[in-house]
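new request in #modeling-help
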Amino acid sequence: DIQMTQSPSTLSASVGDTVTITCRASQSISSWLAWYQQKPGKAPKLLIYKASSLENGVPSRFSGSGSGTEFTLTISSLQPDDFATYFCQQYNTYLYTFGQGTKLEIK
Amino acid sequence: EVQLVESGGGLVKPGGSLRLSCAASGFTFSSYSMNWVRQPPGKGLEWVSSISTSSSYIYYADSMKGRFTISRDNANNSLYLQMNSLRVEDTAVYYCARFVGGYSAFDIWGQGTMVTVSS
């Protein structure tokens, strides 16, 4: 099975900062990587699919990059609404794996 | 409005059974693969199971094989998860999620239903 390793597990930042979260796959997954945002008590929300495509309605300050085994989610000019937990997810044939999550906290 | 609404969660004893339901609305349910994803309290997301549009292809995570059964009723826009031989470690919020093949991602999620396995 493909394992996804996300880092860091916790990230402290201030409004207006730019932050980057990394997700590494244990083997190549081409560009089959998605990013989700989750707030406490809520369902995850799709932000990015196919590594770098922005889901409809998601602000352009969110961007994704990478292919193969290393991927990044970058959030530019952090807004108060962005403080949440972020998960990556890979798709390989019929199996799906999530990263362990990165909690983005207000510094 | 595109929506998924789960139901059927609750408290069950170890070894017991529970059936979760997910009602879909606002989209052509029969055109999408559907999935269950769970999240133990305070932990990350874990994919549970997936079912193709016509139920021809069904997959499970290893720890759920032989205990959980996914099914769907396209006529009634519903997804189900039959959970047997439940264990304490199955305690989690269970989400149903729509899978978009072109995205290889889950684009619509329900609000989740809590399953607690405890004696």
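bot summary: Chain A has a mean pLDDT of 95.
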